[in-house]
Amino acid sequence: MTQAIALLTFESCELILEQGGSRSWVAKAERVQEYSYVVLVRNSKHPSAPHDVEHGAAFLIGRISGVREVDETAANGRPRIQIDVSEYAEVNIADAWGKSQNPVWFTDFETLGVDVSKLKFRSVPPRQLSATKAIDKAAIVGKFRERIAELYQVPVRQIEIAIKL
Asked: Is the whole model's pTM more than 0.70, yes or no?
């Protein structure tokens, strides 16, 4: 039995490949690292979801290459993680999602209806910082500056953010 982590997500294939994996999950990194595969299942009920496959259909299977915390936390304060993948296979497996209420489901290929022998994996392209991402980061820093200025009741121009590497 091949164990896998199924994720109910709105993320597109393009976004997952650009990020090098699927992000913003609440799960214990130690437990995720025990698995070799992640199965991405479409959550078409999310307003940002592409209309590439039906709701509940598996659309991408990745070989897990690592797990890392991202700079986000859940409402309960727990850190969120990204599950990185080194290789991926595009699939369209209808009704792969079970009755799990949690968007992170520890399961296996047999339950999901995946035949591992039919998968054709390709390497995930190396991540590159695009101009769009640079603009997004600048916008995020600007919003933080605005919030800090509001908190301390000072003009935004007086807020400087420094990153020491």
From this structure: yes
